[in-house]
Specification:
Layout: E1 2-7, E2 16-21, E3 30-40, H1 42-49, E4 58-59, E5 63-71, E6 83-86, E7 96-100, E8 104-106, H2 113-133, E9 141-144, H3 150-161, E10 165-170, H4 173-181, E11 186-189, H5 195-202, E12 208-213, H6 220-225, E13 227-235, H7 249-253, E14 258-260, H8 271-286, E15 294-299, H9 303-311, E16 318-322
Helix pairs in contact: 2-3, 2-8
This protein binds NADPH dihydro-nicotinamide-adenine-dinucleotide phosphate (NDP).
Length: 324
Amino acid sequence: MVEAVVVRANGGPEVLELARVEPRTPGAGELLVDVRAAGVNYIDTYQRRGIYPVDLPFTLGKEGAGVVAAVGEDVTGFAVGDHVAWAEAPGSYAGQVVVSAAMAFPVPADVTDETAAAAMLQGLTAHYLVTSTYSVKPGDTVLVHAAAGGVGLLLTQLAKARGGRVIGTVSTAEKEALAREAGADEVIRYTETDFADEVDRITGGAGVAAVYDGVGKDTFDRSMACLAPRGMLALFGASSGPVPPVDPQRLNAGGSLFLTRPTLAHHLATPEEFRRRCDELFSAISAGRLNVRIGGRYPLAEARRAHEDLEGRRTTGKLLLIPG
Ligand code: NDP
């Protein structure tokens, strides 16, 4: 039996319950992994609340890194004792989890399990956003909301590495300092000023080529106002709540704009795509070109506090849960 954070009823952080569960035996193509660090992601809060429905009861979590404890049939390339990281294994808030070998990445020797766990879901998201959703080109100016958050810090660094000019938004002075450290050229405190007016001023009225908006309800309308003609609004999340239905005519009025609502799973469509994105991400980490900030570590038993801090807007970078 291993410890696990279980959801028996949807609701606030108080529904998270530490339980003891029997780990599943790994089937064909699967690995059983001792979890060293599980990543906390905003999607976990959506699943906990039931906004993204999951059959109850369930063990929360999707991401982590750890050590292979057992190997299922037909697995090649992995052995007991290997360090692996993953972004899409349901039930990762636990002492052990079963991971698809095709979607497990061998952690490079110079990267810790904690950094690997912290890099996966948010790092792969930042990677597909700047390479596939709106591919940042040298000279582009882009707007990154919540630039000191988990995705935000990585997105800022990856957009800068592609030659972009980054305008970040944040809510506090501490977060502003972190966004600047990550390379943001300009930082707007969007809780104090109208960020679209500021973007207008910063770009001399030209607007930005793309807005990466994971905040949703509170930012969507003004995000659209920031775009240059033919610019792209990549709405990739809803930390402030879901965006109401949109009239497509607004895209015309705004200047032949593009609106997309991308998701990670569609950008890890094959094991090859998963590997390619991981290789690029971990090469940047190993070379010191990408800094992965771990903003908080919590024992698995304190998953509730981690969720309260994340939803309370008190966190920066990545939150990790550490099994006992
Ligand atoms: P963050 O670390 O970015 O935390 C959320 C941040 O959003 C907060 O720190 C806060 O930053 C900002 N925020 C603004 N308004 C609110 C509000 N009302 N309540 C809470 N937070 C608010 O989280 P993640 O990096 O885990 O995720 C960021 C977004 O990316 C989420 O919407 C998530 O769902 C999405 N996502 C989407 C993926 C995809 O493939 N589509 C994959 C991964 C994540 P500040 O205080 O500076 O305003």
